[in-house]
């Protein structure tokens, strides 16, 4: 009986872990989109092959430059707002692309979302006092 209970507890813990991982994957628009691409057999490569949109890349460079400056709460708040707005916009666009079954457009947009997720991570690390 004890052995059976231990096995059930082990399986319960394993399944709970999988459920939590699935929930976290589906909760975040970027990881959810990447998962949907994966289910469709489309991979997002490291060197995303979306057209090198010079306006987009310039915007990313400018934000990176602002993040490289000395700590400035006003700039951090401005960047945080910009990132949030861009992520919401890209999430709407990628949702529409999936609804149209346009996987190449979804892939391109998810590549852009990865850039903003990286910027968000940089911003968080800058805001945490060292």
From TrEMBL:
Tell me where in this chain the Co-chaperone HscB C-terminal oligomerisation domain is found: 53-124
**Could you tell me where this protein is found in the cell?**
Cytoplasm; Mitochondrion
| Alphabetized Gene3D superfamilies for the sequence | DnaJ domain, HscB, C-terminal domain
GO annotation terms (biological process): [2Fe-2S] cluster assembly; protein complex oligomerization
Q: Name one Pfam family in it.
A: HSCB_C
Organism of derivation = Sclerurus mexicanus
UniProt lists the family membership as follows:
Belongs to the HscB family.
Q: Which InterPro entries match?
A: HscB (IPR004640), HscB_C_sf (IPR036386), HscB_oligo_C (IPR009073), J_dom_sf (IPR036869)
What gene does the UniProt entry assign to this protein?
Answer: Hscb
Its name, as the record gives it, is HSC20 protein
Superkingdom to which the source organism belongs: Eukaryota
Signal sequence coordinates: none
């Amino acid at each position: 009986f004890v052995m059976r209970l231990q096995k059930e507890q082990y399986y319960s813990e394993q399944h709970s872990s999988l459920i939590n991982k699935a929930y976290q994957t589906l909760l975040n628009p970027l990881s959810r989109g990447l998962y949907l691409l994966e289910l469709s057999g489309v991979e997002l490569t490291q060197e995303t092959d979306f057209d090198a949109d010079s306006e987009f890349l310039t915007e990313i460079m400018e934000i990176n430059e602002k993040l490289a400056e000395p700590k400035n709460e006003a700039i951090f708040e401005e960047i945080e707002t910009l990132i949030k707005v861009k992520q919401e916009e890209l999430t709407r666009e990628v949702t529409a692309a999936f609804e149209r079954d346009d996987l190449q457009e979804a892939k391109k947009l998810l590549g852009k979302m990865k850039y903003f997720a990286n910027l968000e991570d940089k911003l968080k690390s800058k805001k945490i006092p060292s």
